[in-house]
Amino acid sequence: MQQSTLALALAAALANAPAFGQATVEDKLQILQQEIDDLKAQARKAAPPMQQPAPPYSPDFSSLLGRSLELGSGGTNIVGYGEVGYSKFRQSGNATADLRRFVFGFNHRFDERLTFHSEIEVEHAVVSSGDNGEAEIEQAWLNYKVSDAANVKGGLFLIPLGILNETHEPPTYYGVMRNQVETRIIPTTWRELGAGVHGIVGEGLRYEVGITTNFDSGKLDDPSTGIRSGHQEGQLANARNLAAYGALNYRRPGLLVGGGVFTGNTGQNGATNPALQGVSARLMLWDVHAHYRVAGVDLQALYAAGMLGDADKLNAVVGATATTPFAVPKSMKGSYVQAAYHAYKRGNFDVAPFVRYERIDIKQQEDLASGLLQDPKNIERIKTFGINFWVHPQVVLKADIQRNATDKSQDRFDLGLGYMF
Amino acid sequence: MNWGPHRSLALWVLALGAAGLVRGEVYQEPDAFVAEVFGSNPTPKVLWLTKDIQTQAAAILGHPPAQLRQRHWSDAHKSVWILEEIGKEELITAGFVIAGGRIDHVRVLVYRETRGQEVRYPLFLKQFKEAKLAQGNRLDREIDGITGATLSVGAMERMARLALYLDKKSRR
Questions:
Q1: What is the pLDDT of residues A300-323, one digit of tens each?
Q2: Would residue A61 count as lying in a domain?
Q3: Is the ipTM of this complex over 0.90?
Q4: Per mean pLDDT, which range of A138-147, A321-330, B81-90 is the poorest?
Q5: Is residue B156 a part of any domain in this protein?
Q6: Cβ–Cβ of B83/A61 closer than 8 Å?
Q7: Which residues of B touch A148 (CB under 8 A)?
């Protein structure tokens, strides 16, 4: 009885409150919220910087106005991507299954302008002296952002050539395997130590320029991949000869058009192979590319080419010192066209069959007297037919069939699973 | 190419000098955005995220909303929602103006990532104009992506859907 009376009295008081100039329940809630916001603001100001790590996302949708300029200091987050693949080879009948990549990275914000970015990659699941696996730092660089138009970066970072090198997470490309042009001509995932400036100007024109370490032609040991085997990957890189790079890319919704260039000497004053002292072995590598997507149709094309100078001198050195002498690549070019159609899209599900045609031309410096000849497998035409099935925008299942005009041993059926976060 | 240290240093100095001439990454403060929409700073309102709203918000975002109250601003015709969502690594802060259950306009207010700034330009944002919710709290149209900014585009889409959904709930 007493409780009922109390409840009735409370209800009457609340109902009558506005009439007596009292705050409504809504008013009180707003006052309480303002007080909470104020307390949070005071707490942020009082706490030393190290004690206020930035949360992964806003702790309070309702207090944005009070912290709009706090761009997150002390925040660290984790990113990652990876892929699993299965390949059955047509000629041999053999099949392999592989945890091809497991990549994770840490990113840290020191203040509103200075950030750190990294990726650590483990390839083929097991890393030991007796296995094929590799563990490597794919990126580790610092970025100082003055504005969108001007960033300065330094460390180990990706070279902005092609489409795939900087955007190589499995859900972002078609096919189980990365395309061969951006593997054998542009050596994705290609990174160098150095410093650069980058930014976006106008409405979507992104520029990148910088100076980095370069390849070391004294380390060439695989002529089938152009210059790739001479990469140094930030591992005690010989840096007598540096390289310069530049890239321009214009992006707008559905469209990317761009290109890049990378050039510098690769002789490294004979640091790896003394016979290369005084040999410039200048490398020039460039590409142009385009990507257009409209009404579910996804079109992509790329052309890349490169020249390696002093190939005759490199031949003489490699012929004298390599365990298995080979004709050094002197020029390389490759191109592909690709078309996909997003045939089914519902919720997170997105299904897109695709076709791709690639041309690879790696010309080697033949030396008939020494028996160094062109490898016919370096002139290749590859057709790929497949399907990507995104079960989530960041998780993809893939299947494809690949046919090679020259090296039939690489004809195969592939299945893949990829993710990024 | 043999680069002397002085040439590298000159490049850095030039870059920093040029950098000092341009704007920062906070394009517009949220309160200025609200004032621009309404011509003044109206009293904010609060939408309490009930269990049902939380469930739907989580389905839209792909993760639970971080809190239970959403501040917004509205008059008889339109509402403003300032939301935040992670692109690849960092939060994007965007303001959404909703009128009649459709997006009137969108603006990126703060962009913190080193890449993907293309999402802040009108060429991208105008795709959201007049967008409304369709079945499953999805947008009634396809938003063309930006090569190399997949995750930032996805974050903008999720926020657009959430703003429309919260607007609908706030007007019940």
A1: 999 999 999 999 999 888 777 777
A2: no
A3: no
A4: A321-330
A5: yes
A6: yes
A7: 22-23, 25, 111, 117
- What CATH number corresponds to the domain at position A153? 2.40.160.10
B49 part of a folded domain: yes
Asked if B73 contacts B96 with a C-beta cutoff of 8 angstroms, the reply is: no
Residue A195 with chain B: CB contacts under 8 Å: 8, 11-12
Residue A118 covered by a domain: yes
Structural domain harbouring B46 = 24-170
**What pLDDT does A226 receive?**
84
Query: Is A234 part of any domain?
Result: yes
Residue in chain A nearest B148 by alpha carbon:
A167
Domain count, chain A: 1
Per-residue pLDDT of A207-262, as tens digits, reads 999 999 999 999 998 888 888 999 999 999 999 999 999 999 999 999 999 999 99
Rounded to two decimals, the pTM is 0.83
Residue B69 with chain A: CB contacts under 8 Å: 33, 60-62
Count: domains in chain B: 1
State yes or no: pLDDT of A62 exceeds 60: no
Does residue A58 have a pLDDT over 60? no
Residue B36 lies in a domain: yes
* B138 contacts chain A (CB < 8 A): yes
Confirm whether B126 is domain-assigned: yes
- Mean pLDDT (chain A, rounded): 87
Q: Do A195 and B1 touch (CB under 8 A)?
A: no
Structural domain boundaries enclosing A371 = 73-420
Q: What is the mean pLDDT of residues A94-105?
A: 97
